[in-house]
Amino acid sequence: MHYTEFDLFGVYLAPIAPMFILAWLLLIPVRRLAEGFGLMRHVWHPALFVFSIYMILLSSIVLLAGWIGA
Fold it and tell me: What is the Cα–Cα distance from 44 to 24, expressed in whole angstroms?
């Protein structure tokens, strides 16, 4: 697994920075789908649930990036 910094207009960014954004962009349709099916009504703490889904998406992206980069 080899994560390297990348240059964005002269600013070095950690490799997890775009992964944060990608996980957030994937979270938007997942959250809307959960609201559409009425899942959010049955969740005890909706904000904690959404944060948990975000962390699951982010960790999956990090693991996938490490597996592809290996």
Answer: 22
Which of 53, 48, 59 minimizes the C-alpha distance to 19?
59
Integer Cα distance of 24 and 48 in angstroms: 15
The per-residue pLDDT of the chain, averaged, comes to: 91
Whether 21 and 58 have beta carbons less than 8 Å apart is answered as no
pTM: 0.85
The pair of structure tokens assigned to 57 is 């998406």
Contact of 43 with 20, CB cutoff 8 Å: no
Provide φ and ψ at 10, rounded to 5°. 90, 0
Distance CA 15, CA 1 (A): 12
DSSP 6: E
